[in-house]
Amino acid sequence: MPPAHTPVGSIYIGGEVNSPGIYPVAAGDTLEDVIRAAGGLAEGADPSYVELIVPEQGEAAGFQKVNINTADAWLLAALPGIGDVRAQAIIAFRQQHGPFRDINELLKVRGFGSVTLENIKAFITVAD
Q1: Residue ranges of the chain that CATH labels 1.10.150.320
Q2: What's the CA gap between 110 and 73, in Å, rounded?
Q3: For residue 70, with 0-12 CB atoms within 10 Å meaning exposed, 13-18 middle and 19 or more buried, which class applies?
Q4: Is the pTM of this model over 0.85?
Q5: With 60 as the cut, is the pLDDT of residue 124 above it?
Q6: Plot region of 107 (φ>0 → left; ψ -120 to 50 → alpha; else → beta)
Q7: CA 90 vs CA 13, 56, 94: distances in Å
Q8: Which CATH class is domain 66-125?
Q9: Mind listing the pLDDT tens digit for each residue in 17-51?
Q10: For the CA atoms of the chain, what is the radius of gyration?
Q11: If pLDDT is split at 50, 70 and 90, which confidence band does 2 have?
């Protein structure tokens, strides 16, 4: 079994979510985790109108990475092991120091260590 928070596949989520798209899923992720990664349900949404598509085994499907230079706090908080406090620390750091040039610069953010970075590096980018 893969380590916790290691992507084991991807899933498309659409319909009445705020940010439809293809997202990575890790062992143990729940539907709530996937909906949260997609920005949560749209205001006044009917949960029965959430669309999920799981690619067939072997079917190529990339996923959208979270740009740590532009992502809102809610999206950063949805990353494995990040939560609200670390999301705010990322935003504060980039406001004070400018955009990240490399994902490894997260190690300069208070509350980040190599384990945290390792858990999210497959999900993040600094490019558009």
Answers
A1: 66-125
A2: 16
A3: exposed
A4: no
A5: yes
A6: alpha
A7: 26, 35, 6
A8: mainly alpha
A9: 888 777 788 778 888 888 888 888 888 887 777 77
A10: 15
A11: very low
Residues with Cβ within 8 Å of residue 16, at least 6 apart in sequence: 41, 42, 45, 46, 47, 49, 50
If DSSP states are collapsed to H, E and C, what string results for the chain?
CCCCCCEEEEEEEEECECCCEEEEEECCCCHHHHHHHCCCECCCCCHHHEEEECCCCCCCCCCCCEECCCCCHHHHHCCCCCHHHHHHHHHHHHHHHCCCCCHHHHHHCCCCCHHHHHHHHHHEECCC
CA–CA gap between residue 17 and residue 64 (Å, rounded): 15
| 90, amino acid identity | I
112, amino acid identity: F
